[in-house]
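dumping this here before i forget
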Amino acid sequence: MRGSCNELPTPVLFMKDNDICKVWKGVFMRKIFHMAAALVAAFLLVSCAAPSEEERTPSGTQSPVNVNSPAATAERTGSVSTPSPQPHEKNKLPQYEFYADKTGHYQSSLHVSLGVYRDAIIDAYGETVYTLPENEECLLYADGYFLSKAGDTQYLKKYDGSVVFSTETLGVTGFGLVNGSSADKKFLSDGYVLAYKTNESYAGVNYEIGVLDTNGQWVVPLADSNPLLSSGMECSQNVFEESLIYVGEGCLVLEVRDGGQYDARLYDIEQNRVVSFQSDQDISVMEYLAEEAWFENGVSYDTYGETIYEIHNDGKVRIHGSVAGQEDIAVFTVYGFHVNEDGSVTSLISNGWNSVLINNKKGIVRDFAGMDMEVGAFDGTAPVIIANSEGTNYFSIVRLDGEFLFEPVKLAEDVIYVMTENGKGIGVDDEPSYSHGIKLIIDDTGGILYTSKDPSTKLYISNGIVREVGEPINGDKINEYTRIRG
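structure:
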């Protein structure tokens, strides 16, 4: 066809001599033109390539993403794919394992274009495993599973994007506990998904509720006879999605109206029953829930003023003797639990006045009254910083028996944060880990393993590798990795 890009020259055999020269000259010039056009296109492709894409890590910092990876390419073009796993270099550090969950993944957002981001699942090496399709958002991610929404349809997917089930396949309206709180993440991490169905008619609205596991099996079948619906709880889509509070071990706490007043009830998923808290004391269970404490081996705690309440998941409440505190102040913190070999539970708690180590069988193990003490996470041990009367700070680790693992060591004045080898951190005067000052990593003998190189950086530690990251005053971004063990 005349003018087509694929037009072929007329065979030279049937032309005159002067026409031959014209034809070969035309062919030669077209070849030169095509070669030049190809070179220009290649140059433009390199020089006009999209700017480096970035991922927003859970901590809010910016980290690079491989824009040439199959997942990134798919994500730019609007398609979704899961690349074949590639073996990582043996000496390559899993630089993002500080964000990753127990499956080695975390959820983040990828920069697609100016002002446009897409939710994605990233592995510990910073590689994109799965990018959510356009117009689909991640509602909640926890330990390899995530709930997402596209239009009116919600999904439960695995980290690789494979669908376990959806509201459409189940024939339900939506999923509950999706407001993104740590309690909601714990609910999904423990393997539960609450589903609800709304049936509307001129006569009103009828609800059905059920609970599935993350394999798609009904733990509690969908039914309008679910005891949650007859507990006195207000029923609405908003309540199902945002107001139920997970407190661990398959238990939800709900707020109900009882005789004109609000009260709390406990819903045990595995038993499919609602129980009331049995106490003649003025126990503010909803206040305790705000601290997001969990049941551990059937036990949790609350405090009110100088009184400690031991709460069981069958609704029973045990009252322990008074400890130092301020009357009528309902400030409560649970630093953590440890289940002992005899089945008892040891907990480290605070009533806002002082910290108490307590065991549900032995009672109060140690009352730290009189100590100006900051406490970190407790799982059998807990890091603590103690300030003496002169304001000098000392660091140690509390054991199960209430004693210190080692004689508290004095901290320099410019130290504002200390971490243990297993990543539990604690700040001086409750300073967060990103505050400006020196950070230390101290082992269980009191020895200093690592001192931060810059006061503006933040430390992470995992599997004997320390990551120090931040934007120091001199403008040179720090992103260093140091192996201190192994």
